[in-house]
Amino acid sequence: SAWLHDFDWRKHEAHINSYPQFTTTVTDDDGKDYRIHFAALFSRNKDAIPLMCLHGWPGSFLEFLPIMSLLKEKYSPDTLPYHIIVPSLPGYAFSSPPPLDRDFHLQDVARLFDQLMISLSFNEGYAVQGGELRDVGSKVARVIAATYDNCKAVHINFCIMPEPADPVGQSDELEKKGLERAEQFKKLESAYALLHATKPATIGYVLAANPLSLLAWIGEKFLAWTDQDLPLDVVLESLFTPGVIGAHENPEWYIKKPMGYSYFPMELAPIPKSWVATTGDLVFHRQHQSGGHFAAIERPEVLLKDVEDFLAQCWHH
Q1: Strand order in the sheet with 126-130
Q2: How far apart are CA 218 and CA 252, in angstroms?
Q3: Digit-coded pLDDT (tens) for 96-115
Q4: Rounded distance between C-alpha atoms, residue 142 and residue 140, angstroms
Q5: Please, where are the H alpha helices in 60-157?
Q6: Are 267 and 242 in contact (CB under 8 A)?
Q7: What is the pLDDT of residues 288-297, one digit of tens each?
């Protein structure tokens, strides 16, 4: 009823469109062209740090609008210390879908997004921030940081992984509770991911056939995966765009450059600092007492401060 009678899509559309957005063509190594959509705040500050922010599922570029809004309020175009680039993953919003004739992996997305940053003239160095679920955002951020020299630093707020053989230190009580939450998520909340992985066409047809199905499938995640319930309008707005464990602990993608990690206790799988430290050069860590899976929406001020403090500490390019 609220969606049908009370939700003002045109109001939200106008808000979304108030942020600069672009599309560009990125040519992959095989010669195939991909249209990549991105929101951006470009600075006139000659020392601005290029920062690419990556969403995941069931999110979209909309997740980072609250942070972009804070930056617009805090800085002018002349003083903004960052170039903020928020691309839509392939198949999201106005970005081209992945190809149907072959598998499309994290490495493919990472390669396209590195090329995107180069095409924007950030080939002398950029930082990347990624979060969310099992999930594309944090994992693409990791692959970019581990693979491409153009990426100079990475900050993540999600690092799902099994327990390492040799953790760097001990878990505190909050982290132990987080591991219990991760186990509960694995047992009771992860079936959707198996369906996505094994029967994508089935669930795709169901969600495309009925908007209420889409609301039920995605809306429940925005309610169950947050520390506190988000406003209903935020959940409904997020239905606009969405069209494996194994990355973070992969030694191939160990990060040999500055890495930051923010811990939010109501994340789906809050991973202890001692585990995360086995996956890269962890130079920045901050543990929070509240916040869940959608940190960029739930705690935009907190996440932004973490990223700003991390870059202030490690960016010496």
Answers
A1: 21-27, 33-41, 82-87, 49-54, 126-130, 151-156, 255-263, 280-287
A2: 32
A3: 999 988 889 899 999 999 99
A4: 5
A5: 65-74, 106-119, 136-147
A6: no
A7: 999 988 888 8
E strand residue ranges, the chain:
21-27, 33-41, 49-54, 82-87, 126-130, 151-156, 255-263, 280-287
Task: Report pTM.
Answer: 0.89
Give pLDDT tens digits for 257-280: 999 999 999 888 899 999 999 999
Nearest to 54 by CA among 165, 163, 132: 132
Q: Which amino acid is at 241?
A: T
Residues contacting 112, CB < 8 A, separation 6+: 26, 28, 34, 36, 90
DSSP tag of 238: G
Instruction: Tell me if 116 sits within 8 A of 39, measured CB to CB.
Output: no
- Nearest-angstrom CA–CA distance, 152 and 83: 15
Q: Which tokens hold the place of 145?
A: 């940081």
Instruction: Please state, in angstroms and rounded to a whole number, the distance separating the CA atoms of residues 94 and 102.
Output: 21
Burial of 73 from C-beta contacts in 10 A (0-12 / 13-18 / 19+):
exposed
Rg (CA), the chain: 19
For 80, the token pair is 């903004």
Q: Is 52 exposed, middle or buried (0-12, 13-18, 19+ CB in 10 A)?
A: buried
Quote the pLDDT of residue 249. Answer: 65
**Gap between the Cα atoms of 99 and 205, Å rounded:** 18
Average pLDDT of 158-182? Answer: 90
Q: Tokens for 191, please give them.
A: 């079936």
What whole-number percentage of the chain has pLDDT above 90? Answer: 59
Which of 79-116 are b and which e, b meaning 16 or more Cβ less than 10 Å from the residue's Cβ?
A: ebbbbbbbbbbbebbebbebeeeeeeebebbbbbbbbb
- Is residue 253 within 8 Å of residue 281, measured between CB atoms? no
- The mean per-residue pLDDT over the stretch 121-137 comes to 83
